[in-house]
Structures are given as structure tokens and as C-alpha cells.
User: Fold this.
Amino acid sequence: MKIAWAAVILSTTLTAQDANPLSADVKRAYLDVKNYILRSAEKMPEEYYDFRPAPRVRTFGQIIGHIAQEQYLYFCAPVKGEQKSVDIERTRTTKTDLIAALKDSFAYCDSVYDKMTDAEATSIVNTGGSKSTKLRLLWMNIVHDESHYGNLVTYLRMKGIVPPSTEGQ
Assistant:
């Protein structure tokens, strides 16, 4: 009898998860990159937040600020039907301030990913002159974050720090 109940519970869980497979996939990918970026921000010592490997590229801290800022401006705010005006990349410089801003931007986006359904994901939003589905904007946020996580990995490695995605391997 216990096995039968376990099968019922498992099938109910799988059915509930399958109800919104597109939004579940996008949320899972978002949570992965969010985790890596937050852990990278924590791992990098404060004295290296102004590190830049070449004169014409962002510092580590500017990348963290850029990620936080763009999540508001170009990705999560349009999905929410809001306009945000933030300037994190140029106004925040300390590790503490940048991590706080990063966490705030992820919390803002969490509410978008948490509430997304497949039906809503197909809704069209205006993104300042062009139109996109909400799902496309959410995936673009992940692509943007993953791209800059690649930058963070390089900066961490240049300072002899193992990036979160390869810890324990």
C-alpha cells in the first residue's frame, strides 16, 4: 500500500510540474545562474572589486553592478509592466553596497520568475520600440547573466579563486 501512495504522490508532483514546463525550465536556469553570480560576488575579496584585467573593460564591481542594473531595466521590469530607473553600475562601488544591490535585483526578478506560468509567458510586452514575449525576456535575462558570469569566472581565476561552478570538481 505504501508503494501505491508513493506512486500517486510522485505522479501528482510530476503532473503539477508538467503543467508549466516552459516557465519551470526558465526558472530553473535562472536559479542556477543567480546562485553562481551571488556566490562569485561573495567570494571575491573587497580589494579586488576594482580589479580590471585591461584598461577598457569593466571592473569586477562594475560587472556586479551592471548585472543588477540590467535585470531591472531591460528584463524583469518590462515583464512586470513597470519602468525602473536605476544607476547601480556607476553609483555603487563597495562590495557591501554592490552585493546588496545585486540581492535586491534578484529579489525583484524572483517575483517575476516565481509567478510566471506558460500561459502568461506568451504575453507580448513592449520593450521600448520592439515587442517580445515575456518568456523571451526571461531567457534573455539568463543569457545576459550567464555571459557576465563568464566574465566573473575569468576575473576570479586571475586572482587565484576557484569559481562557484567548478568548486568541488
About this structure: The longest strand covers residues 124-126. The helical segments are 2-18, 21-43, 60-80, 88-91, 95-115, 118-121, 134-158. The domain at 21-166 is CATH 1.20.120.450 (Four Helix Bundle (Hemerythrin (Met), subunit A)).
